[in-house]
Structures are given as structure tokens and as C-alpha cells.
Amino acid sequence: MKSRGCGFSEINACLCTCMYSTFRGSNTLMTAASKNYVDKTLEKIWGELNFLNDNTEGGFFKLRQVVDTAYKKKASYYKIV
User: Fold this and answer.
1) Which of 1, 46, 49, 56 is 20 to 30 A off residue 66, Cα-Cα?
2) Angle between helix 8-22 and 35-55 (nearest 10)
3) Residue 53 has what pLDDT?
4) pLDDT higher for 15 or 68?
5) Residue 42's pLDDT is what?
6) For residues 42 and 8, what is the distance between their CA atoms, to the nearest angstrom?
7) Would you say residue 2 lies in a domain?
8) 22-79 pLDDT, tens per residue?
9) Domain coverage including residue 48
10) Own/partner pairs for 54-59, CB < 8 Å, 24+ apart?
11) DSSP secondary-structure letter at 32?
12) Residue 17 CB neighbour total at 10 angstroms
């Protein structure tokens, strides 16, 4: 038996968030057998990324100004010269 909210989707979300946050230039692809599972896991990933942006005092803060859609995020920023 295991408790709710600490299963495989939560582990996969953690791994994807770790790759995005700690490795420069990494590409992370999350797949599942059903669109429903993809959407639920992506919801967890985006929640974790938002938590890192809001609560780590800039330690893991990543701007997503160029690509920020429901299915794709990219750490990037606009620099106006």
C-alpha cells in the first residue's frame, strides 16, 4: 500500500523538474499512454516549477518569456538593448 500523491506521476514530475532546473541546455520529454495521464503529470510539473519560482528566493528562478504554453516551457528571457 502507498499513500496518495506520492506515486509514479509525482516521481516523474520531480525528475522532470530537476532536469529543467539544474542542467543547462537539457531537454526533458514526458510521455504517457493516455493524454489524461500526460495532462495530470504536466499539471504537477508546472506546479513544481511555479513553486520554485515563488519560494526559492531566486535560487531556482527561471523566466519563461519566449515559450510558455500548456505543453512546452523553455527557460529564456528577453534582453532589451
Assistant:
1) 56
2) 50
3) 85
4) 15
5) 92
6) 13
7) no
8) 888 889 898 888 899 889 999 999 999 888 888 888 777 787 877 888 888 888 877 7
9) 8-74
10) none
11) -
12) 20
